């Protein structure tokens, strides 16, 4: 992409977390974290065309395939050299056992400052195990040392797109939201009815997570038995 942008003599904003169109100018508003993630900068390509941006993986949903669209197939003769990569694999270091890759998870059970202590992540783990899900966390929980960084969801953590994201005791700050807003369904439990997460979740429950999680665990176990 940088090479194409350079050849077209235009700009490129890489790794955007949001795209929008300026209704007045029709320009593409390209938002991405800048200065080490300390601000969200909205960048416009005012003078040159085309406007080019790349998007951080999983920030946006892929469109459903449209079978009605037809493309023209152009056969190009390529030599084996054209297809050979100049990238050389020097080493392959798989994740250690116990390390997590939440970006591939279909269900994420996530905890924030509302969990109050590292021990309470055991509650989340029990629920996540029952649902065959992975554990996510807000930066507040990571910074408090309650759980390790690979679990962090958000602007300075992982961007995830599970089928189900369940947030317990997470307020829904914009830096968290950009990492999980494309999840298929977002459930939130928070004791504060004005928490921002209620503005963008699919289903929200105002209540105490310490009451709701044990009830959920009990109910799932009961249903599995019957
Ligand atoms: C440059 C920068 C980058 C950042 N990157 C990230 C990032 O990648 N990811 C990220 O998550 N954040 C990030 N942040 C931090 C972000 O701004 C928020 O501070 C953070 O997400 C807050 O985490 P939280 O929701 O767990 O905590 P809080 O905002 O403190 O929210 C805790 C919530 O728990 C609720 N609660 C408390 N007790 C209970 C209970 N018993 N039952 C139910 N609910 C309860 C409260 O009502 C509250 O809404 C970043 C910030 C900056 C400046």
Which term fits the overall shape? globular
Structural class, from helix and strand content?
A: alpha/beta
Bound molecules: flavin-adenine dinucleotide
Mean pLDDT: 93
Would you identify the regions where 5 or more consecutive residues have pLDDT less than 50? none
- Corresponding CATH superfamily of the largest domain: TPP-binding domain
Q: How many helical stretches?
A: 6
By CATH, the architecture of the largest domain is named 3-Layer(aba) Sandwich
Taken in chain order, the helices and strands follow as HEEEEEHEHEHEHEEH
How large a portion of the residues is in β-strands, by DSSP E?
Answer: 15-25%
Can you tell me the CATH class of the largest domain?
Alpha Beta
Q: Which fold name is given in CATH as the topology of the largest domain?
A: Rossmann fold
Structure explained in plain terms:
The chain has 226 residues and is of the alpha/beta class. It folds into 2 domains: 2-55, no CATH class; 102-225, 3-Layer(aba) Sandwich (Rossmann fold). The protein has helices spanning 2-7, 80-83, 121-131, 139-143, 174-177, 209-225; strands at 12-16, 18-21, 28-34, 39-43, 52-55, 107-111, 134-137, 164-168, 185-190, 203-206. The strands form 3 sheets. The chain has a 5-stranded parallel β-sheet with strand order 7-6-8-9-10. A 3-stranded antiparallel β-sheet has the order 2-3-4, with no helix packed on it. Strands 1-5 form a two-stranded parallel sheet. The longest helix has 17 residues, at 209-225. The protein is globular and about 60 Å long.
